[in-house]
Please model this.
Amino acid sequence: MLSDVITPDLFAAALRIATPLALAAIGGTICERSGIVNIALEGIMLFGAFFGTATVLATGSPWLGVIVAVLAGVIVSAIHATASINLRTDQVVSGTAINLLALGVTGFLMELWYGHPGTTEPIRTLQPVFHFTASGEGVLNEIWRWINGVFLSHTPIVYATIVIALATHWAMYHTRWGLRLRALGEHPRAVETAGVSVARGRWVAVLMSGALGGLAGANLSIEQVGVFQENFTNGRGFIALAANIFGRWTPIGSYLASLLFGFADALQIKLQPFRDVVDIPPQFFYMLPYVLTVVVVAGVMGRAIGPAAVGVPYEKE
Amino acid sequence: MPVLELRDVTKVFPGVVANDKVSFTLEEREIVALLGENGAGKSTLMNIVYGLLSADHGEILVDGEPVKIRSSRQAIDLGIGMVHQHFMLIEPLTVTENIVLGREPGRFGVIDIGTARKRVAEISERYGLRIDPDARISDLEVGLQQRVEILKALYQGARVLILDEPTAVLTPQEVRELFAVVRSLVDEGLSVVFITHKLEEVMAVADRIVVMRDGAVVGQTRPSETDEVGLARMMVGRDVVLRIDKKPVACGETVLEVRELVVKSDRGLDAVGGVSFQVCGGEVVAVAGVGGNGQTELVEAIVGLRKPVSGSIALKGNDITHASARSSIEVGVSHVPEDRHRRGLILQFNIAENLLLGDHRVAPYARHGVIKLREVISMARKRIEDYDIRTPSEKVLGSSLSGGNQQKVVIARELGRNPELLVAAQPTRGLDVGAIEFVHRQVLAEREAGKAVLLISLELEEVLSLADRILVMYEGRIVKEFAADEADAETLGFYMTGGGGTKLEATPPEASPAGAGVGE
Ligand SMILES: Nc1ncnc2c1ncn2[C@@H]1O[C@H](COP(=O)(O)OP(=O)(O)OP(=O)(O)O)[C@@H](O)[C@H]1O
Ligand SMILES: [Mg+2]
Model:
């Protein structure tokens, strides 16, 4: 039984499921480091997934879909930036509004463009980058089967996400952008007195998180599922924020935390066939990743200290 | 030609004219002291020069050229640097990161941290401002944090340096070092504007003195043409008593009793290493010491903000060793914290709400968990009046008050509660001479009403004029105890810097305080 569960595709699934979470979580990290809470990531992902899918349906090009998904994320996050940076509204309110808007607008456009609610027609998806085969007997072949299965079976955005995690992490600690970003969320006024524009730095961060949220949506629809469904994201944006906290507001931390959630979810899926054996309702399994979120966040919250000025609107005078 | 000139600068905030046609000049290599009561408009004026606020009217000239300064970036580019009243440092970042922020060396957006560190080292070498470039700000003492602020301005290439109350947080020794630095900066060609409330500093360091009151410049003078009393009169518009005589008060029952108290610092070291003392009703006991010798942790343990490792604390015979901050307030302990921004106020709350904090559960301000706004507002108005908090209304946010007026809000709240024990850490930090006189009178009034006062202060003047008994703290221990009339600044300074050795001197706690037993 164990060998049925612990297989290469369990870990491959963990990586796959972690990808949209990690993208959104890194977006959340960047945004919160600048001092802006972005609970709109859920809605941004949904917008990205929808417009990405719609583009592929219209043009047949998955890559064009990815680009449009990212742009959609950027545009929607601009609403959040305007509201929270320029108008200084409460960032949670603005984020919630975008989440509700995302549900409404995508549902409405489904009806308008495709004439029905629910799910779109299947689209052309992005295919795995590599196509190696693994067969034969022996230890070496077995190792190769694992490497190929776990690491070499993925679609482009899965790999891009790992690169993004490493690159943003490095940039956060070695570049001008990173230093200013880390300073912004702690003490914006100090940044201002050092001659750096607070509003501009925060705008850049919010738009970046929008791009990453959009890309997460593209991964879900154009790489993983191949359709768009209403409320497709299903709380992933919020789990991503938990991953950001668990990852201590760092990109690599966010990635690893997402991997943990991804693994829990993959395991849950793997265990589904056994539920007849132990007679547990399926909801119990669906619940696992969310329970893990609650436990993890509650468990580390006391020790995890976020940016000092996060969520506080900054007023120049 | 002056390096900096302001002409008729006016700035109006809702309900307040913070600057009223202010004209001001600063010559090259000059040190000008800007003096004035709390809320006179000094910080506002300098924030306008630094581009943080924009003037409603008026002109700014740099090197004789009219300029518009709309952001700090422009001010920095014009060679203006400022050390703010409340530091502008990012605590989790390192010294180097804070200094280079905004002008990071490097190419293609990648910071060359090696070069950055080298430049910081060069500047700190050149001006004798020694610092560890890799230390985190949160690990540094205020004196060093201020050094970072000055280095930051120098790194940015300041020719005009504005220091807004730089000495409020410094020990006398650090003040002397700062003055030496300021003089060497002037030798290097800089010009300095120096805001302070400490008149002896003005006399010591300034070339010229500009006095503001109610937003306007009311006079100019030079140290050679005046003295401290004259300056105080110019500032406040009346005669100020710089040192108040205190009446003898009999020592009542023991209010605070601390026994063998051991408290750890945030870094897990023994910050307070077995301290015992008592404070009785009608007595002011001062803890003197150089900052960072355990005073902060001692205070936090007494007021319930930090758990002691061992030992006991009792208030009027009741054990409060493990009391929470809430129950500590309930049994009658008031606390004026040393850092008004971190522990004293909620800047986003208005004055009335800040005055209510801690009493928000009790009658007459609350009933059944609902706050009675009318009571709160009338209390707030009364305290604003009594404590001379300069503000147009009780609805003004804490963040909009001048530094000194923020301090007055904290004092008003803590004294207004009518406590059994007042624990006051740096209660007059940032206050003008008039306000200091007022607070000192209030502290002595508590004493005369038979209350106990534990005063923690870096100001030896303050310690000497208020205390009945002085405990000198060094490296977490009480190394010496004085009756007020036995002590002078010099001996205190000697023990504060470890002169007496670190062994606990066997001074029996019942040693009678000065003036005790001579009730009225
Ligand atoms: N952002 C603001 N909004 C509204 N009023 C303000 C603001 N900043 C300052 N004021 C008001 O302007 C006046 C001048 O304040 P300022 O901070 O310049 O005083 P100050 O001379 O520096 O006093 P202190 O010695 O206490 O620091 C005060 O009445 C203050 O309440
Ligand atoms: Mg001020």
Observations:
- The two ends of chain A are 66 Å apart (CA to CA).
- Chain A has one domain: 2-300.
